[in-house]
Amino acid sequence: METIVVILMLVTLVALIIGLVNPSLIMRWSNKPSRWKVFGWYVLINVVLSILLTISSPNSDSLTSKDEQSKIDNVKNEQNITNMVVKQNTDSIKKDLQERIEIEKKKFNTKYDDFEKITWFYSKTKPNYANTMACYTYIGLKDDGQVWRRLVMRYHGDTWLFVNSMIIKTDENSYNINATNINRDNGTDVWEWIDIPVTDQEDIIIDDIISSKQTKIRFIGDQYHHDWTIPSKAIQGLKEINEFYYLLESLSKIDQ
SS3 letters for 158-227? Predict the structure, then answer.
């Protein structure tokens, strides 16, 4: 029984890693699969399996005879074999992730900060210059494996808006983003932008943008606003960064 439960735990771990990369492959029954739903099901199933594992474990205090001790020894041997199998499979998953990351990272532009020991990954769809409209994410990866994303949304035009907030409208939802930490610069034209860490809220927004047919951003200033439709090229960049980020995050979780 214990062996079966441990194997099921391994299966759920593999399903979690796959689901974090592509939720629809795991949650085929859901109309709107998401990474949070995959993680929620993983936690729930593992709580149940942990309870089953506890129930199925023999109580050594109640076993005193030689036959019973022999049973305990057999169970321990089974556990050792199972743990070895789990480790081998985990090492195999880790190796597969590392190989896929090495292949996928060729899709991105990279920049290494040797002071902070951080590699930055940018989609090749990211605009090369700051004086343009933009919506993109990029990844920071420290040498110790810590990984995170940042989100940039930028207005560009010939007049100042003095942007203080933004509304993102997807096919079905609208999201408000406070832009009190706005950055501004100008040349012959002007540009105003935010560069913020991706928290749970931004993660939901990014997933919604990727799955929507059309997404618009309204940059709201003190008196005026400007509407911009995110082009398909930028959305593809968001998707590529997202998928690569979850590969890196899955590897990071295995190493923890």
Answer: CCCCCCCEEEEECCCCEEEEECCCCEEEECCCEEEEEEEECCHHHHHHHHHHHHCCCCEEEEECCCCEEE
Compute how many other C-beta atoms are within 10 angstroms of the C-beta atom of residue 168. Answer: 22
What does the alpha-carbon distance between residue 146 and residue 44 come to, in Å, rounded to a whole number?
Answer: 26
Return the beta strands (E) in the chain as ranges.
Answer: 108-113, 118-123, 134-142, 147-157, 165-169, 174-178, 183-186, 190-197, 216-220, 225-229
65 Cβ neighbours under 8 A, 6+ residues apart? none
Please name every residue paired with 202 in a beta bridge, in sequence order, or none if there are none.
none
Angle, alpha carbons 129-133-134 (nearest 5°): 80
Max CA-CA distance within the chain? 89
Residue 91: Cβ-neighbour burial (10 angstroms; 0-12, 13-18, 19+): exposed
Q: pLDDT tens string for the chain (256 positions)?
A: 667 767 777 777 777 777 777 777 677 777 667 776 777 677 778 777 777 766 665 554 554 566 666 655 655 565 665 566 566 667 878 888 899 999 999 999 999 999 999 999 999 999 999 889 999 999 999 999 999 999 999 999 999 999 999 999 999 999 999 998 999 999 999 999 999 999 999 999 999 999 999 999 999 999 999 999 999 999 999 999 999 999 999 888 877 6
Q: How many CA atoms lie within 13 A of 141 on its CB side?
A: 22
